[in-house]
Specification:
mainly alpha; two-stranded antiparallel ribbon; elongated; transmembrane helix; transmembrane
Length: 290
């Protein structure tokens, strides 16, 4: 399994955490638990990306706050030709549109606040997955009719519709490239978020393209491919950095173990030469005992 030197066991699969401590990779792992090496990598990734995560959440919150302010400004204006052209269907009540945007903003502010606590380092993956799940829940409340109400609980804001119908490519870039690049999850975690958010963002796309299903299906394919590809590319870069760090620290651990073995050997030789030792005599028997 590994080398034993001076009472130090160095398995082949030794994991060195970002704090520099060495421990066995797969020791004590039960069924259903992630391998210790992957857990160490996720801790390393949380340390490396803490600044990017907070910046991305802050930027996202700022964008949503600007959109909310813009909605208030538009509501104060009379109905203009662009807004009338966008709203081919009867416009939703303003209070439902504002409720949608306020809830959307509140979700990201909650995650931003949590990212400023120690919870970010221990639960980074859960926080970033929660962002996608909360956004998806808001989208569904905007789009899915509820039988008791006869329609959705919330409404798609007309400001969103105005922007994405004028610039449809922007919707693709935000969901397929920008979000996975800013919130860098590992591919298997990104796949969970993509699976959960696929239906809500596809139905939101259907709303923007006025029910044109070929465009919706094309977007869904691009969303799956884009999110996984961007996630894999960003994760590969960090995994390589983690492996380099781990190899360097493993080399240092083995070097210290070898140095300790050499010093123990030198100490034992000196003790034998000076008559010291463990109290036992290992030389030739005295003549009077012969």
């Amino acid at each position: 399994m590994g080398d034993c030197t001076a009472g130090v066991v160095l398995p082949d699969e030794v994991m060195v955490s970002s704090a520099g401590t060495a421990e066995a990779s797969f020791a004590g792992e039960g069924p259903g638990k992630p391998p210790a090496l992957e857990a160490a990598y996720q801790d390393f990734k949380a340390d490396q990306l803490v600044g990017l995560d907070r910046m991305a959440l802050l930027l996202n919150a700022g964008m949503r706050a600007v959109i909310v302010r813009r909605a208030h400004e538009i509501d104060a204006l009379p109905q203009t030709p662009p807004l009338a052209a966008v709203a081919a269907e009867p416009p939703a009540p303003w209070r439902l549109q504002m409720a949608s945007q306020d809830l959307f903003l509140a979700a990201i502010l909650l995650l931003l606040a949590l990212s400023l606590t120690p919870l970010h380092r221990t639960r980074r993956n859960l926080l970033l997955q929660l962002r996608g799940w909360l956004d998806s829940a808001v989208y569904l409340l905007m789009l899915m009719p509820l039988p008791p109400l006869g329609g959705p609980l919330l409404a798609v804001p007309v400001t969103w519709t105005l922007v994405f119908r004028r610039r449809p490519l922007l919707y693709w870039v935000i969901f397929c490239v920008w979000e996975p690049a800013m919130f860098q999850l590992s591919p298997y975690l990104q796949a969970r978020v993509t699976l959960v958010t696929l239906v809500p963002v596809s139905f939101l796309c259907r709303h923007y393209v006025r029910g044109h299903w070929p465009s919706v299906l094309l977007f869904a394919a691009a969303f799956i491919a884009g999110t996984i590809a961007v996630s894999a590319a960003s994760d590969l870069r960090l995994r390589r950095r983690f492996r380099r760090m781990r190899r360097g620290e493993l080399g240092a651990v083995r070097h210290l173990a070898a140095a300790g073995d050499a010093s123990d050997g030198a100490g034992g030789s000196a003790a034998s030469a000076s008559g010291g030792g463990d109290g036992h005599y290992y030389g030739k028997p005295p003549k009077f005992l012969s």
